Structure formats: structure tokens, C-alpha cells
Amino acid sequence: MSVRDIRVFGDPVLRERAAAVDPSAPATAALVQDLLDTVQVPGRAGVAANQIGVAKAAFSYNVDGEVGYVLNPRIVEVRGEPVLVDEGCLSVPELGFPTPRHPFCRVEGVDLDGAEVVLEGAGLMAQMLQHEVAHLDGELYLQALEKPMRSVAMAEVRKAPWY
User: Fold this and answer.
1) What is the pTM of this model?
2) Which of 47, 27, 28, 51 is CA-nearest to residue 37?
3) Is 132 considered catalytic here?
């Protein structure tokens, strides 16, 4: 299909809780293809459907050479105390802040055939899973920041040329 434009902070679709998708619907297959095309732009680890303007529960990922997608994902397990990791977001361009993330995460969902998909991992995979599921809940990573850092981040957002 095509590489889609990324919606940025302030776009109302980023605050919407994504609706469940029907894996067998033709529109879902088209959405998945757009997500896969969009995540393969260099430097991208994940793209949630609402980041391309569609408030549906789907995201694509591109981590350590593994590219894929999951529909109707839900976090079923996190392990370890949250640690601060440097994080950015395509919807908050050119900025990054230390964000608390669990070191391990497991997500379950389905694919276009309705078959179960399990994604899990540590490091960048864990970070991406938590980040993308939060997007589908209508949350940006800025909301996960510790309060003093959130104040700094919001000041930087207000100064950004895209704001």
C-alpha cells in the first residue's frame, strides 16, 4: 500500500483509545500493509495505527531485523522494576526523554488469520511493546515520564517548531 504520514502531538486521534479490529475485514489487511510499509522507514521501531490516523488496535514493529504486526494487542506480563531508558516517539519528533519501562514485556494478540500472536522480549523489544500498546490506549510516552521530567518535556514540546 503506502508509507503513511505520522500524526504529531496535538492531533486528537493520538488521544483516542483504539477500537478492536476485525482481523478478517478487508480494511484491516490494508491497514496492516500500511503499518508494515510505514515502520520500515529507517530509524523506526514501531508504529501504532493511531499514529497514522486510524484509531484501531493494531501496530507494526521493526526490532533487531524482525518486522511484523499484531492486532488487538494486550500486555499480559511485565517483569522487573521499571528502569529509565532513553525514549523518543515519531509523534513527538526530535525529542527524547528518560522514560520508566519494565525490562521485560509480553504482548498477546492475533494476526490477519485470527491466529494467536505472542511478542515478548527485553531491551528495545520490551520498550517498543510498552510504547505501542500505550499509543493504542490513547497515551503518549510523555504521560509515562516522572513528574519533574514531564514538566521539562512539555516545555521542550512547546518550543518545538512542529508544535
Assistant:
1) 0.96
2) 47
3) yes
